[in-house]
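Input record (one chain):
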Amino acid sequence: MSTWEELASAALVGTDRRPYDGVLLEDAAVEVARRRAGRKLRRPGEVAPPAPAPEEERPAVARRGAERLVRILGGEHERLLPEWLAAAAGTGRRVPPYVLPELLERGRRDRSIRVHLGVLAGQRGRWLAGQNPAWAYLLEEPTGETWELGGAADRRAHLRALRAADPAQARRLLESTWERETPDDRAEFVDVLGDGLSMDDEPFLESALDDRRREVRQAAANLLARLPGSRLSRRMAERVRACVAISGNVIAIEAPRACDKAMERDGVRPKPPRGIGERAWWLQQVIARAPLAVWGHPPAQLLRMRIPDWDADVKAAWVRAAVLQKDPEWARAMFGWDPIADLLESLPPDEQQELAADFVRNHDLDSQLIMVLGGVSSHWREGLATAVLRKIVKVATTQPWNLGELVKLAGERIDPALFPLAESYSPVESIQQVAALLRFRADMYRELKETS
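The corresponding structure, as predicted from the sequence alone:
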């Protein structure tokens, strides 16, 4: 291809080199370039146009499903956006191109919706992300690529899927590349091993306690605490025995006086957060990672005992241990002492809902009740749904101004197939708002099953 100056000279042939307007000259030069090369030539300083987006590999969601997404993005029940995205991703389809700019901009502001965008945005979405730095986050989300070729998110998704199918093979795959992984990736890959965790993973996790990155050591220690037979669990049990003496109905506690290097290696952080003393902090961490069986009594009995010193710290550590070690018996007992949502995660979905329904029946509407309900897995079945609807009716007569969050949560978490139950439960306006939102979600799921 000739240079720009040559093309400009060619464009002036036969004009006796008379001065021309610069823009007209450039247009003439471009026309010459077209004739010679059969394609457009860039003017000086003009940026080359990007290559076209690749062809899409997945079909788009059906028209009505896409229209509902537009309504949600426009502000109609916009808190349902994560649920719509998750449900759509489950169909194996993508979103239509015309919603991509708004959806990618939402993802820029809200990290929580990114998890499914790598698949839903399709080839066009990734192409757009390559043109706009503000949307470049999408290039880090999983797309279905393999361990060898994918980005960090793809590799996590691959490892997670392999872990579900063959835990030992997943661990061996991680071990084969461990030394080449970045510190951030190592910490996240260790977390993936929480699924299907067994003593077969213990040697690898024990070695990870020597990692230079604190987050890696913490993640490994948290998983080893779930293995009562691990070397870390045995070391933590010895530390608890050195701190605790149980006599009759009294638990005597002597908190650690120092945090040595061995404790730090086992995940004990030496510097406490603001508002808590060092010894209390070390005590809580040691108890949280020691096997709960070291206490020698069931949790309900221990909670009835007297702890003259460090009482609140010991019980807070028991809560943490129940959550960390995913022990259902302890989670159940500690929920009775401190009903926090994290404890519910250690229980089967049915029991979660039973405990939450009892809590709703026996507890006033406040922020704690909302937090407990927020920790219950969707979709709420009839028992919990009825308890919540009953609470809404009761509060509607005394504190209707206080119902906003509970009404939204009920509409977002109750199984949408139960919308007839809500519609017929009571004519109270707040109940009908729940019913309308449940019907909206039921329609949403039905539309996402459509193919055209």
